[in-house]
Write a structure and sequence with these properties.
It is a single chain. The protein is of the alpha/beta class. The protein has two domains: about 140 residues, Rossmann fold; about 80 residues, no CATH class. It has five helices and five strands, in the order βαβαβαβαβα. The protein has a five-stranded parallel sheet, with helices on both faces. β4, α4 and β5 form a beta-alpha-beta unit. α1 crosses α5 and α3 runs parallel beside α4. The longest helix is centred in the middle third of the chain and has 28 residues.
Length: about 220
């Protein structure tokens, strides 16, 4: 009976992942913990309908004090239980118009803080609870844009990272419906073992293994 923590679950991938996980039997997933920094009617509805299996917490992952307060609150709430899986799902992709010279340094630092440092903050804060859990697994949700080797695939696209799931960020023009993509993500997170440590994996969506264009969803390891 796993306890799974998802950050950034107010909408999009995080919300859909929580929704799909709570559909699994209690024998597989007992509790889904979700952080959100702002109001979310979607998440509130999921919590209300979950019979206590989905719990919502406020946390601002870019603020060290907020993360530490959340960790203490969660430790108290779990009353001796641990966290089996941490899913670091927070991320942004701001668009800079006008080329490299128009990129503001403050925005670059903010993006790095949200996309990279916030995952580190959360991971460090959750280590004591992960040590209490039986799964001891951390999954960091990313994008193929994180691969240096894949960078040339996307030079012709203005918003390449959006071309996958039809979320608010991904737009209606993305490749996959959010439920299809997140189902593949869920299966990847739940199935990986120790031999996947430190590796970067694509999701697997049947029928998309050899798709034309820059995006294939074949479950293969992505080079860093």
């Amino acid at each position: 009976m796993s306890t799974i923590l998802i950050t950034g679950g107010g909408r999009g991938i995080g919300y859909e992942l929580a929704k799909q996980l709570v559909r699994l039997p209690v024998s597989e997933v007992a509790l889904v913990l979700v952080t959100a920094r702002g109001p979310s009617k979607l998440l509130d509805g999921l919590v209300a309908a979950s019979a206590g299996r989905v719990l919502r917490f406020h946390c601002e992952a870019t603020d060290q004090q907020s993360v530490e307060a959340f960790a203490a609150e969660l430790d108290t709430k779990l009353a001796g239980r641990g966290v089996d899986i941490l899913v670091n799902n927070i991320g942004v992709m701001p668009i800079t118009e006008g080329g490299m010279h128009a990129l503001d340094a403050a925005e670059l630092l903010s993006t790095f803080d949200i996309n990279v440092v916030s995952a580190h903050r959360m991971t460090v804060a959750m280590i004591p609870l992960l040590q209490k859990g039986s799964g001891k697994k951390i999954a960091n949700v990313s994008t193929p844009l994180g691969s240096i080797e894949y960078a040339s695939r996307y030079t012709w696209l203005s918003t390449p990272a959006y071309k996958w799931l039809k979320t608010d960020m991904g737009s209606k023009d993305a490749d996959l419906d959010v439920d299809t993509g997140v189902n593949a993500l869920k299966n990847l997170i739940l199935s990986t073992k120790e031999d996947a440590n430190g590796k970067f994996f694509n999701i697997h969506v049947p029928g998309w293994e050899d798709a034309k264009g820059p995006n294939q969803y074949n479950g293969a390891e992505i080079p860093w």
